[in-house]
UniProtKB/TrEMBL annotation:
It comes from the Bacteria. GO terms for molecular function: carboxy-lyase activity; pyridoxal phosphate binding; transaminase activity. The keyword Magnesium does not apply. GO terms for biological process: amino acid metabolic process; carboxylic acid metabolic process. PANTHER family: GROUP II PYRIDOXAL-5-PHOSPHATE DECARBOXYLASE, MIP05841P. Signal peptide: none annotated. The modification N6-(pyridoxal phosphate)lysine is found at residue 298. This is Aspartate aminotransferase family protein. The keyword NAD does not apply. Its cofactor is pyridoxal 5'-phosphate. The lineage of its organism: Bacteria, Pseudomonadati, Bacteroidota, Bacteroidia, Marinilabiliales.
Amino acid sequence: MTPGQFREEGKKIIDWIADYYENIEKYPVLSQVKPGEILSSLPENPPLHGEPMSAMMKDLDEKIMPGITHWQSPHFYAYFPSNTSFPSILGDLVSSGLGVQGMIWATSPAATEVETRVLDWLAQAMGMPEKFMSGSTGGGVIQDTASTSALTAVIAARERATKFESNETGVRQKQVAYISTQTHSSLEKAIKMAGIGKANLRLIEVDDQFAMRPELLDAQIQKDKKAGLLPFFVCGALGTTSSNAIDPLRKIGEIAQRENCWFHIDGAMSGTAMLCPEFRHFMDGVELADSFVFNPHKWMFTNFDCDVFWVGNRNELINTFSILPEYLKNKATESGAVFDYRDWHVQLGRRFRSLKLWFVIRHYGIEGLQFHIRKHVELSEKFTQWIKESDDFELFVEPPLNLVCFRHKKGDDFNMKLMNTINEKGKIFFTHTKLNNQVVLRMSIGQTHTELQHVEEAWNIISDTARKLA
């Protein structure tokens, strides 16, 4: 394909994407295909000869699109938002076009330095402690997901606790990590992958708001110490996955600091809300954190994948992950004057992810981002009020931000039937969880193009369907 052909076909694909967004509400939000249906529509053998773009686009429309669940639909309320925006899409396109592999500063200085600057912008805009800025002891790095950041934090914590002996001799000490019963499953996976072992992961019970109880954390740490174990890692949640519960971060951080445990804060979705000063009380105690993670690819209009991971002491990351083979040696690295982000995480190769974030921040500005976050919270408050005014539904827990947990009063089976009936029709898509062993319905309101009329329509569908099923 020549540059001229690329220009011609690229314009068609931009038009296709724009048409998709203009017509996105015509699609069923949840894909209606059966397992294996897409697979069976695709040839078993690859083409021997090249095919025209027109044939690929025809198959995209006819074979691929039926198998798409439309995460960018304004009627998508499932799981968590994974929103994007046109500036982000364009930034990602430029990144793909440049084809940068930014593993070290020398392989593309702009990839490193744009990332450094953009993450400093965000730290400043979100009221993060000075230590998370690149000009201080720490700094930020873009990972793919919060799961990878969790693994990075656990491994760095393991090495700090063992004075970096584990990397040399293997994990020998009985180290213990602490999360709540509501913490995301990625932390359990990280503990397994880091060689700590699931048996050495303590799940701390939560209160009636599903937030970790710090007094139980403290008691468990003392019990483990008496048993000759080494506490090394504590995770607090700035918004749990099931209910968006906010852990008491200051109290947890004080315990972690006293016990020389690495304190990691997981703000995967709700971290974005810290752009708004009125929500920052939720992260009281953030200055006690050794690391903090949030996903712009959830609620900050930046397409997947883009995860921001800040640390208070970057040397602890570098000493954990740095390996310098001969083929990567260069003058810039040896000078010590640059960041080589491959030393800040597991992977060596790196995409130019910061470019789409740069596009988003410059397009919206901080005030524009704040506007949309506040709008989503206001929409969630309206939905919450409708629940409270209903005779048939009940609010399960007061929402701190943009996730509403509620249920119909007729019980678990009815709630599951209600949700599945609605999702199968395709107009809206929402999901459930279990809290206190009860089925709870979740409305996660955070898609880029969701407006009041969409949330009103969702509530009408839910309440009308409930009346018909009852």
